[in-house]
Fold:
Amino acid sequence: QVQLVESGGGLVQAGGSLRLSCAASGRTFSNYAMGWFRQTPGKEREFVASISRSGINTAYADGVKGRFTISRDSAKNTVQLQMNSLRPEDTAVYYCAAATYGSIVRVERAFDYWGQGTQVTVSS
Structure:
């Protein structure tokens, strides 16, 4: 069992930046590929970014490439999402997730553990 707790969400103006963090506890953090998803009311949760166990490989949704950066710190058991050049359409609840299997995981159903989410609001 892995427990995930997100932090760092908030209100920011368009063009601004936020850094989300996800703290993992429980089983060995390095055993899991990690990812970030987001969801807005009335829509399905969508993939944002993922990172492999080693931290070497990453993947991003097309809409965030070049603006968002995912990273992990195995010493601190955390995964971060640096979000720059934020847009109003980035407004959502952002979720951290851990996958037991796979390297770069993009599919929601492949993730086994989820955090409670953190709200990001980008004003125009």
Notes: The longest strand covers residues 18-26.
